[in-house]
Write the structure tokens for this entry.
Amino acid sequence: MRWIIRPVWGLLIVGIGFMAYGLYRQEHLIVLKKAINICLECIGVG
């Protein structure tokens, strides 16, 4: 069972690192802007 736990912690740390890097590059603002544009196009407002 211990051989399963180590890769899980490693992947968790890598995932948190990628999330922090995305926040540092302000990728969340780009994704939000694209989501708003898609929603407005679906409704027909944009």
The chain has one domain: 2-43. The first helix runs from residue 2 to 24. The radius of gyration is 18 Å.
